[in-house]
Design brief:
This protein is of the alpha/beta class. It folds into two domains: 152 residues, Aspartate Aminotransferase, domain 1 (Alpha-Beta Complex), CATH 3.90.1150; 276 residues, Aspartate Aminotransferase, domain 2 (3-Layer(aba) Sandwich). It contains 15 helices and 15 strands. The chain has a seven-stranded mixed β-sheet, with helices on both faces. Strands 1-2-3-13 form a four-stranded mixed β-sheet. The protein has a four-stranded antiparallel β-sheet with strand order 11-12-15-14, covered by helices on one side. α8 runs parallel beside α9 and α13 runs parallel beside α15. The termini are far apart.
């Protein structure tokens, strides 16, 4: 069935889109995409754009990968839907669990599949409260997170990230959330502060936050290995070892949010491996299915699971589930993603193109609008400022303006989609990108920067 979309006389008061100006949506037609192939996305007029951020850092194997489409189609024909709960499941979920457990950096894990990354983090908090209660530590309910990080959009996960303004706007309850500084080095460094001094200060801040709240009230700290939403600042090498030491001192667990960084973005399957982290639990989503179907996972260690088992013994069952958790079609697509990773050596490909990626990012440093860059795996951030203005501070924001907004809009005009944040724009392309495509991406980004520069009034 073909549905004709009328492009003239746009007026749609019913349409609501996230991260958008609701007033603008009522009068101005949004950018509408109709198809995609590889790293390219095409609008309804047939114009191509390089999707330099893989949509929301998730279309890891590119658009229109036929094997993923076929995996979904095959599963839809055999069994399109069956909930995994009540001691019932399906073969695709069992295979995905077995293979993901074998790939996990956490030994002897237990894995629970949810629908989205937000749900995975939300449920991990819920599971922690459950397990701690039955393990005799019911007061360990608080979670430490880092300012400007992003862990999801539910009520609970909104309390674990974002800005104070965002939390105030939605009236987010913060009673269980404690926030510490993000390791935004060097932008957040004090005058004359060394990198080691910076990480010492953040470790001390963490310890003082724990002592002020009471160690016996804190269950875990959650952190992304590298937070794109906080501006894509790769943490200094000494950061995680120092904060892990503090957490272990007070018996506080480390939860690593790999929703964005997992499945190859670092050149390893997990950023946890690339950075030598030892989490108690992890969350994963986005790349697990190439984003073709919604699925996410919670990977939990033996001690965490022992506590869940205590609750199960006391109550006779684990009273948690949902209709679409571990959806059978999503699981089948995720299994095929693992097949593609193995057969095409996706991780080897990422490592192979990373030098070209870094060269492209560095090649933009001579542009008058560019004041700095940050590189991490197959991701990068370009700091921009008008000529004569200084670089932005460390905090990222969902609401952006000024030169960053202009670069984003100029990018659309030049056929490239970037993600604007406060003081920078970030890129994290599909993992399948080639060196030739990296070169073309750099050309389009430079053209966008040139367009912004040419439109600036004399200063």
């Amino acid at each position: 069935m073909n549905i004709e979309i009328k492009k003239s006389n746009y007026n749609n008061d019913a349409l609501m889109l996230g991260f958008s100006d609701l007033k603008r949506l009522k009068t101005e037609r949004p950018l509408v995409f109709s198809k995609g192939k590889g790293i390219f996305i095409y609008d309804e007029n047939g114009r191509d754009y390089i999707e330099s951020v893989s949509c929301f850092y998730c279309v890891s194997l590119g658009f229109s990968e036929e094997r993923l489409v076929e995996a979904a189609y095959k599963q839809m024909k055999e069994l399109p839907m069956y909930s995994s709960a009540i001691h019932r499941t399906v073969p695709a979920v069992m295979e995905l669990t077995e293979r993901l457990a074998a790939l996990s950096p956490i030994k002897n894990p237990r894995i629970y599949f949810s629908t989205t990354g937000s749900e995975a983090v939300d449920y991990l908090v819920k599971f922690m409260w459950y397990g701690n209660s039955f393990a005799g530590e019911p007061n360990r309910r608080k979670i430490i997170s880092r300012k400007s990080s992003y862990h999801g959009s539910t009520i609970a996960t909104s309390a674990l990230g974002g800005s104070q303004d965002l939390q105030d706007s939605f009236g987010i309850p913060m009673g269980f959330s404690l926030q510490v500084s993000h390791p935004s080095w060097p932008n957040a460094g004090l005058p004359g502060e060394t990198e080691e001094g910076f990480t010492d200060r953040l470790a001390e801040e963490l310890e003082q936050t724990i002592l002020a709240a009471g160690p016996e009230t804190i269950g875990a700290m959650i952190a992304e290995p590298m937070s794109v939403s906080a501006g894509m600042f790769p943490p200094p090498a000494s950061y995680f070892p120092k904060i892990t030491k503090v957490l272990k001192k007070y018996g506080i667990q480390l939860f690593v949010d790999e929703v964005v960084t997992g499945f190859g973005r670092s050149g390893r399957m997990w950023a946890t491996e690339a950075m030598g982290l030892e989490p108690n639990c992890m969350t994963t989503a986005k790349g697990i299915s190439g984003a073709y179907m919604p699925i996410a996972g919670i990977i939990m260690d033996e001690e965490f699971n022992r506590r869940l088992d205590l609750g199960n013994e006391a109550k006779g069952w684990f009273a948690h589930g949902a209709t679409h958790h571990a959806h059978v079609v999503s699981a089948a697509v995720a299994v095929e993603v693992l097949n593609i990773f193995e057969e095409r050596d996706i991780l080897g490909h990422v490592r192979g193109v990373m030098p070209a990626w870094n060269r492209m990012l560095d090649s933009l440093m001579d542009h008058p609008l560019v004041v700095g860059n940050r590189k991490w795996g197959l991701a990068g951030a370009i700091e921009v400022a008008y000529p004569g203005e200084g670089r932005a501070g460390p905090a990222a924001s969902l609401k952006v303006g000024g030169v960053v907004k202009e670069v984003y809009e100029a990018g659309l005009a030049e056929g490239v989609i970037v993600r604007p944040l406060a003081g920078c724009f970030v890129m994290a392309p599909p993992l399948i990108i080639t060196e030739a495509e990296i070169t073309e991406l750099g050309r389009r980004v430079r053209a966008a920067l040139d367009r912004v520069l040419a439109n600036q009034p004399a200063r």
